Fold each of these.
Amino acid sequence: MIELVRESWSPEETHAIGAALGRLLRAGDVVLLEGDLGAGKTALTRGVAAGMGIGPGAVSSPTFVIVHEYAAGRGGVGLVHVDAYRLGVEDAATLGLDAVPGDTAMVVEWPERMPHGVVDEAAAARVRLEVTGEQSRRLRLMLPEAWRQRADWAGGLAPAP
């Protein structure tokens, strides 16, 4: 795993970090977002959508509907956005999360509330958002090693040489 730490001093910077992450995503990728309420998980997801070529204005927190699916952006890859905060074990089976289309990437907020086995956590990227101030956040990214080989690796997340 590749471990990166990024500091964000505003929602706009969190969005930009998300956009850099979104440019890296490919079909089948899963990103697990961890953090307290209000840490910026949905703001980061808006950035991910923008980086994927999906209108970030369409992205909203799926807390009450649990899953939002967004049409394909660049490269024909869509985005499935899951908020597992209100998810129960019985809900996971009925949502069809194990049958997400192969041409999508998935971002999961509150992954610790999902039953084990719904997503392959070992192959997933993980982002932990920590509140460090009123507007500031520390983002700890754990990305699969194979992502270093992707064309957009140097597009904002890679450490400076």
Amino acid sequence: MDIRLTPHEARVIGCLLEKHRTTPEHYPLSLNALTNACNQKSSRDPILALDEATVQDTVDTLMKKHYVVEKSGFSSRVTKYQHRFCNSEFGALQFSGQELGIVCVLLLRGPQTPGELRTRTERLCKFQDTREVESTLIQLMQRDDGPFVTKLPREAGKRESRFAHLFGNDTEMHEAAAPDDAVSAGPDTDADRIVQLEQLVKQLRDEMATLKARLDRISPEQDPGSMP
């Protein structure tokens, strides 16, 4: 099943999935509530600042794809929205509670380790331990109608590999939300690290030479240990 979501679409779907599960009394969501959910400071990565027009455009696109529908009661004057992305009578995509919890958190927070997923899905579903998370991830990777999740190469210095959803590439959104100086914040490759180490060694050698020259200028009568 090939489902491709843009980064903003993934955020909207993730928010609708989350609020449907965690605050059913406030679901479906109005445009204002959905915008606030997309821009939420907690449980989101990256943190966004979408305006209502952008969220509305995203919702309109998702409605054309039949992943979102309007759902307003007769007494409500405000248009509200609910997802039909999965676990609905209108679509073939069905997830277990644990699978849905993992997919939702991956849509909202990007790639994560099994340990992070176990902690961050607590409000959505329950896992006994990290092994149960890993087992569910394997199910999502091996489903006949999938895969829906992929295992990323383990990062240098990390003990656990991260897993990402396969509903679209959210790298674009992470890069757009990163500060301008993110690239220069630290070395990204082994070559960069070598260059920095060489510069550090040269700096230390220069400082040592300066100190040696100062000691050489000390008169024989002066005890170096008495220097202030």
Amino acid sequence: MKVVLSVVVLVLVALVGVAYAWQAPIWWSLDDARRASKIEMKFEPGGVVVDFAYQVDPAIVPPHVRDAMEKKYPGLKPIAAEKGWEGGLPFYELTVNHSGKRVEATFMEGGELRKLEIGTTPGDPKYPVPDIAQIMVAKKYPDGKDVTWEVILLVEGDLENVLEYHAKFVEHKGTPKERRYKVIVLPGGILKGAYLEIAAELEVPAHPR
């Protein structure tokens, strides 16, 4: 399995897993890990984990969350799902293909839609990437290749407001120094954060046979 990690705390994976087991005993379990096709963790520079998610079968997401997704995107079958925490709060995420775009919808445990992540491009008619955001990423990472963008919308009732943009790209592509990045940019062009996406390995105890 792979883990998405910030560059500074690879050696703390085991300790963070123990900490989360203590902080969220109801949500965190070995069964979650065993069911996962992928596990993602996000760390802040100080080593604090702020995001932890398992990629799971959409069928295990509670019915009331799936119903909320159906209401938002009628007739679209989820193609992926996650169960996890963000900022210490539990959430579910369901993914659909909508009008040719990948849409990831984040729901709180009770079924309230809180966030949308939508694939976009600089020339998108609805959510174009601001020029200033593109310039910032190009300036900071001039060797970045294969750049893809997402717009992140904060959902509050019937309102959907742009929160930030995510740029994903490869730096030093095809060389021993190749690295994959995820960069977070605010609508005004301010660089909010940058993370390396690093492949790692977790060994989870299997069910006894």
Amino acid sequence: MIAFVRGALAQVGPRTGACWAIVDVGGVGYQVWIHSRTTNALPALGEEVKFFTHMVVREDATQLFGFLESSERELFGKLIGVSGIGPRMGLALLDTLKPPELVQAILQGNSRVLALAPGVGSKTAERLALELRTQLAKWRGETELAVAGTRGHSKVTEDVELALLALGYTPNEVAAALNAIAPQLANQNQTDVWLRSAIAWLAEQE
């Protein structure tokens, strides 16, 4: 098992869809499959990078899937342990939702948000929530995801974020809305107030 690879970033593949990076480790190039959000956080070519890796061995291929945080690799391992969730779908889930958002959606059984990931249908999303809810509740309490939250927001804003995603807004739109309304709602802890304000702000941008 290869737990991590560290070396010079030699090449990055397509920054959308099936993304990969090649890491030069002592003159040997390791191809690591990553999701598109990871590509945006990579250093410049030639600089050092470290991927926490999950190795998948099959009859026809051995592949490394890489993550910049060990907690994301652990979450990936739990995702692909669910029947019907392969490595590509696991990457798609982590590309669509950041780890705190993904865990929150699973804990809440929010299959509509989970189904936003490419290739994840409603039945798969329901199975994902059913099989991982209890396991992730315990795991989240043992990792930094328990306090990380999304951009340091409270549970209220996490709930609003998931509600907006379920309404069809993109992650970038949701992030912009929450960042825009946060200053005037700093002392407000009612979910419906945040949700109405976010929707109103998004409507103004159309």
